[in-house]
Design a protein that fits this description.
five-stranded antiparallel β-sheet; six-stranded antiparallel β-sheet; alpha+beta; 231 residues; 33% helix
Length: 231
């Protein structure tokens, strides 16, 4: 009986060890396959970015601006190929990853922002987002998009966006506006976009806490540099 119990325990230990060793490998393999598929689908777009990053000549700026408004904004920066990264995320849950091309800042994740996002459709590759310094997009850990936009000194908006099919809609949003007396008013809506009405008004403390919580959810992992794209 003791021998049988010992044998059973030994078999269980082998199974557990096998499970521990195979689990991470399978997960890594799944991620690798997803990247290979994404790079295959969006190869032409990635090639355009890789080529544009290698040259900073003035006459190439127009070519870069065709890629996206955001990319044209940073086109004159030095070592551009070391600052542009890309990743894939299934933003609308349809089983096909979207491509996100981003400006990378290793020191401050909030200085990372999505320059452009692309969707693969039956009609070809479609650009679905464009970001620049005053209208930044960030990928969140739950596959939502955080958008921080400024209309100047008078107002600012921070919102969480969800992609449905090929369009983005507001999940929730924070806005900040000056009233006629020059006092700042803070607004928050759990669903959709807040209106400048009393029922949406919150304190500065609540507004800032919610803003910080959203920013902490920004995902800057799993990014490759465009210079490492194999084409």
């Amino acid at each position: 009986m003791k021998r049988l119990i010992s044998l059973s325990l030994a078999v269980m230990m082998i199974c557990l060890l096998a499970g521990c060793s195979c689990g991470p490998d399978k997960a890594k393999q799944k991620v690798t396959i997803a990247w290979e598929k994404g790079e295959s689908l969006f190869g032409s777009t990635l090639k355009e970015y890789a080529a544009a990053c290698q040259s900073n000549r003035t006459k190439d700026i127009k070519t870069k601006q065709k890629l996206s408004t955001g990319f044209g904004e940073v086109a004159k920066e030095k070592n551009l190929d070391k600052r542009i990264g890309y990743t894939f995320a299934d933003l609308n849950g349809d089983g096909t990853e979207e491509l996100l091309v981003s400006l990378i800042d290793m020191k401050d994740k909030l200085n990372n922002y999505v320059i452009a996002a692309y969707q693969y459709t039956s009609g070809g590759i479609k650009r679905i987002l464009e970001g620049w310094s005053r209208n930044t997009y960030h990928l969140m850990k739950d596959k939502l998009i955080l958008n921080e936009a400024s209309g100047g000194a008078s107002d600012a908006e921070i919102s969480k966006l969800h992609m449905r099919e090929s369009a983005f809609e507001y999940m929730s949003a924070l806005t900040m506006k000056y009233n006629k007396k020059g006092k700042i008013k803070y607004y928050y809506a759990e669903v959709g976009k807040p209106e400048a009405k009393k029922k949406f008004e919150v304190s500065k403390k609540v507004w800032q806490a919610k803003c910080k919580d959203w920013e902490n959810q920004v995902d800057v992992n799993n990014v490759k540099m465009i210079k490492d794209f194999k084409h």
